[in-house]
Design a protein that fits this description.
The protein is about 25% helix and about 20% strand. A hairpin with a 2-residue loop joins strand 2 and strand 3. The longest helix is centred in the first third of the chain and has 9 residues.
C-alpha cells in the first residue's frame, strides 16, 4: 500500500490511478496523517431473482408460517418479555 501526501497526489493523480487500476491501494495523507484511501471501484452486481435457490441446502427449505405467527400473552411472558 503506497502512501502519498496531498500535494503529490494532486500532481501525480493519473499515475496513482494507474496503480489503483493494477490493484494497488493508495493512501492519501495530510501532514503524515492518513485521510483517504484510493482503491479499485467494483460496481455492484445486479440482483438476480431466484439466485438463492442455487445455494446448497435450498431444496430442503420449507416455509413454516407458524414461525411468524403472533405469540400469545402466555408465550410472551414465558420468554420473559413481560
Amino acid at each position: 500500500m503506497k502512501t502519498v501526501n496531498v500535494h503529490e497526489a494532486k500532481t501525480t493523480l493519473s499515475a496513482l490511478l494507474a496503480l489503483v487500476e493494477q490493484g494497488e491501494e493508495v493512501v492519501i495523507a495530510r501532514n503524515g496523517e492518513p485521510v483517504a484511501r484510493l482503491s479499485r471501484y467494483h460496481p455492484a452486481q445486479p440482483r438476480q431473482p431466484g439466485a438463492l435457490r442455487r445455494l446448497p441446502g435450498w431444496e430442503s427449505f420449507r416455509y413454516d408460517p407458524a414461525v411468524f405467527a403472533p405469540l400469545s400473552d402466555q408465550e410472551i411472558a414465558d420468554e420473559g418479555w413481560l
